[in-house]
Predict the structure.
Amino acid sequence: MLDTIRKFRKSLLGLLIIGFVVLAMLPFGSGLSGGEKTQDDVAIRIDKTEISQYQYRKRLDQLKGLFRQQLGENFQRFAGMLNLEQQTIDDLINTALLKKLAGQLGLTASTSQIESQIASSPYFAGTVTRESYENFLRAQGLTGPQL
């Protein structure tokens, strides 16, 4: 995944992927899977961090949605080459490891830094309103209490 980002980092596609990954990390770890995890529910285990099948499927669906938007009718043609399942696994592992490292280093993001990052997303075109933010979250599959 990192090789793909490096390859496309100066293109619009690369910027969109990076923006998506950053925004996709916002709800990570917020208890979206609901309930307790069973042994069968765990898709990935990194040290003591467990990533559920639900989280894996949700992230994979988000990534597929992103590429469907970008590639349109060509998505099916390129889907195999994109290796989205492996990209999803890599992304979830990287996110968990970065979250762990940030915790160990005591790193946090201020509200203004988060707002600035969200506003810089191409989705919002520089203007973030509560309505546009909620619409974005809905587009990512978050509904009801998760908003």
Q: What stands out?
A: DSSP finds seven helices and two strands in the chain. Strands lie at 42-46, 49-52. Confidence is low (pLDDT under 50) at residues 30-34.
